[in-house]
Amino acid sequence: SGAGLSGMANPTAHFETSEGSFEAEIYLDRVPITASNFINLCRSGFYDGLHFHRVIDGFMNQFGCPYSKDPRSQMAGKGGPPAGSRFANLKTGAVVCRGYGGVIQDENISVDSNVPGSLSMANTGEPNTGASQFFLNVAANHFLDWFTPGKSKHPVFGMVKKGMEVVTKISKAKTKNERPTDPIKMIKITIAGAPEEPKLPEPPPSRKRSSSSSSSSSTSKPKKKKKRRSKKSSSSS
To answer: Residue 37 catalytic?
Structure first.
């Protein structure tokens, strides 16, 4: 495992799904804001009971939309954490406030590629639109790296260390319109080895908070055939 804070090992996330369990190292040492955002959502139970809403064999498994609690929801893929919700950067202690749609800033600072087993942030295809949704790569998807040419920029924040066969199994699920026909549920994500989250100061009074993004977070696989532009899709390409 990687060298984390003060030489300590990085945190581990244990994913218990309806298809089996797997574990990943979370790169708190490399991308502390992205990793802390994920750890905060895991610890709050945000991901528990959600479903994989987009699965493509030979590409990736996408997860983390709150609307996917209903595996048939047409809104799955369009949600995020509450706007204005806050978490601590577990490396520096700084308070981070999520923007509209629950988004965080892109943390394009560590040269980690979208290789098989990596965890990577989903987004709408525009900068700074990552929130709660992420994907597990099951192929070498270098075209999604923030440091390669093209518009798709997806920072990696972890790596599967145990149970990759479960991740691969999920990617091979039977799907309709890229959604598993038999729902695949995330029962629970448990974090181990991460610093305790400090008590955050009270936020100033704010207006009503939004709990969802208006656009879809996704990754786009390059197609050999030229595809028609869809007005509904806001995927990256």
So the answer is: no
